Write the structure tokens for this entry.
Amino acid sequence: MEEQRIRVLYVDDEENNLLAFRAYFRKKYEVYTAISASEAFRLLESIEMHVIVSDQRMPITSGVEFLETTVEKYPDTIRLLITGQSDIDTVIEAINRGQVTKYLQKPWDWEKFSLILENCSDLYRAKVTLKEKNAQLQKTNDELNRFVYSASHDLRSPLMSVLGMVQLAKTDEAMNVAQEYFEIIESNILKLDMYIKNIIDYYRNSRSMEILDNIDFNYLANDVIATVKDQNQEVQIEIETEQEEEFVGDIFRLRIILSNLISNAIKYQNPTAEIHKVSVSIKSGHKYATISIADNGIGILNEHIENVFKMFFRTYNATNTQGTGIGLYIVKEALEKIGGNISVVSTPLEGTSFKIVIPNKKS
Amino acid sequence: MGKTLSIMLVDDNPTDLFVHERFLVHKNITHEILKFLSGEEALYYLHDHPDAEQWPDLILLDIQMPVMNGFDFLDQCEKFSQMKKSNIIMLSSSLDFGDINRVKANPHVLALMEKPFDIDELISLLEINGILK
């Protein structure tokens, strides 16, 4: 990953110092300068700084006073104070109170200044990385909790239904209903199996690295459709692929993405519609492949559209099809892993259209 | 067994609705079964049938349902004064500790039973509580 350019704000009431600072550091950092604390505040309102350098001796607002006011709003920012020998007590006090991270003594030599700024940049990056890792850890933890709760219910539920059917079959005298019972048992077993497959996909996706292959979209789309079309034979599926050049991508994740989206399009059909249609269109270019999967099915209510990519989100619907609540979540996670994105447009009872964009990893 | 009951089943799982209906019919304890796949649909029904005579004697209510779960349904039901007439038994395929406590704390709920329910256990529960004579 490319390292983010560090944004440095330098505040000093001496114009010459500002100019010299800019000249020395402009190649290495994104440099902003301000002649006073109030000008610095104006800059901070629109730009978040990673490192703030301030002179201590300024009229009206001192360096420490200024830096102190930025602590609450920008807790990750690294603050560097520049002082003369006589202000040493102020510096010690400011560092101990956590308002200032580093200090530089006047008069400075540029190499030393440069080293300290580099230090500040590393500190900032470390802080941000730690925060990101923490957020990731928190997300994993939350998901795990929800997963255990949901899995314990959703995995057992179809199994308990089957058990109920078996107990019923044992009590019912009329054997001519057996055929119906077996069908219900079968549909529950298939549901449980789908759930387990989804879980396996989820774990594979979260664990494994990207594995790149040459992709023939026409072949892939047809292959995926062949495995999911049995869910509703009445649906007409149209495929349109345009692929002029080589496309390199993660075939395993592409398969997960396509099969979940196409399978949803087939499952959530509008029972009142005369013809059931799903159209898959793929345009593969030099930089990206754009895939659209559209249906004329039951659609998604506006209030639910934000939630469809969340783990274990489900609604009920006119088709009585029960989802597992992880299909679209896996789609989104898989896309994140391969650097793609997804958007959805839907009108209830008219249909849903998913559009995904995936980068070509050829170069 | 003399008196039979009108029973409302609320469950998002069609198989469980089917199984529960068959058991209840098989044991001859009901003259009317109302089946609903969601709490909302059941609420609409109750709303459209304000006459307490028409309210079910017993509601078998699944806990884990999408959008409106069993407890949400109960909260909505409490707005109806006719609710006094109905006895509620909640159902779940996995007994969650938190759910057990919520059921115990709810004065309207007679019991929490694990799915698939044991029909004989249900009948003896109804007899002990004088709902079925």
Remarks:
- Chain B has one domain: 16-117.
- Residues 16-117 of chain B form a domain with the Rossmann fold fold (CATH 3.40.50.2300).
- The interface with chain A takes residues 12-16, 18-20, 22-23, 26, 37-38, 64, 66-67, 92-94, 96, 114-116 of chain B (CB under 8 Å).
- Strands of chain B lie at 5-10, 30-36, 58-62, 87-92, 109-114.
